[in-house]
Amino acid sequence: xxxxxxxxxxxxxxxxxxxxxxxxxxxxxxxxxxxxxxxxxxxxxxxxxxxxxxxxxxxxxxxxxxxxxxxxxxxxxxxxxxxxxxxxxxxxxxxxxxxxxxxxxxxxxxxxxxxxxxxxxxxxxxxxxxxxxxxxxxxxxxxxxxxxxxxxxxxxxxxxxxxxxxxxxxxxxxxxxxxxxxxxxxxxxxxxxxxxxxxxxxxxxxxxxxxxxxxxxxxxxxxxxxxxxxxxxxxxxxxxxxxxxxxxxxxxxxxxxxxxxxxxxxxxxxxxxxxxxxxxxxxxxxxxxxxxxxxxxxxxxxxxxx
Length: 306
Hints:
- The chain has helices spanning 2-17, 25-33, 36-64, 110-122, 137-140, 179-189, 215-220, 224-234, 244-247, and strands at 80-81, 87-89, 92-97, 127-131, 151-154, 163-165, 168-174, 198-209, 213-214, 236-237, 240-241, 269-275, 278-283, 288-295.
- It is of the alpha/beta class.
- The protein has two domains: 2-64; 80-305, Rossmann fold, CATH 3.40.50.
- Helix 1 packs antiparallel against helix 3 (36-64).
- The radius of gyration is 25 Å and the shape is globular.
């Protein structure tokens, strides 16, 4: 707060010097030449922005009765942050996309996703947290993940540009049909072409879907055909993997699409849909084989079988 008053007083003082008084003209000119006025304005705006962030945290916390009691790790210290083009090489890779109260307002997967992360780390499998950019202090306190991952990757949409050398890739987080769908799509696009088939495993007890629902509970109520219909309506859109291209529209008054990531067209892939390892359907006409295994009722797969 003291910094705010210092910046404000400096800003007001410099403005007072800019009054049309002839005796001060030389002083004002010198201040302008030294960029003191613009610097003071910049610092004032900077302090205002910092205070707004703090106020936002307090407002959200008060509104939603959060107490900063998440024992969340520091996801930037001692953890390698992945970037576009990085290669991840392991038989099994585990992605967790946006496991945060910001989107999962009912904690639909909070307990199960932490258990799955623990299991993966104990098995020695790399765990990648796909996080929103954490520059905003308010966002940091809403991730409910208890364990430090192997890697992090910052992405507001869930999309990534990683190269994967794996026998199977496992997914958790959400939204299943939106940001987590982008993570799956880019895993398929970035898969090592020497490894086939592409094996994708969805831990449905650790995936949340709109609006704030646990995907496993959604699918357990459906028979095989109903599950296929659910996926066709909610996950495969316009013959592509993921629904986000449909869900995010262009800003009003613009023709430029907000969403620009490359799609994974079903014309390029032949996808086998499995429910707990049992085939229930297929789609796509391409030559690249993809197995999508949804773990609905069965136990977590023994990944060493592949």
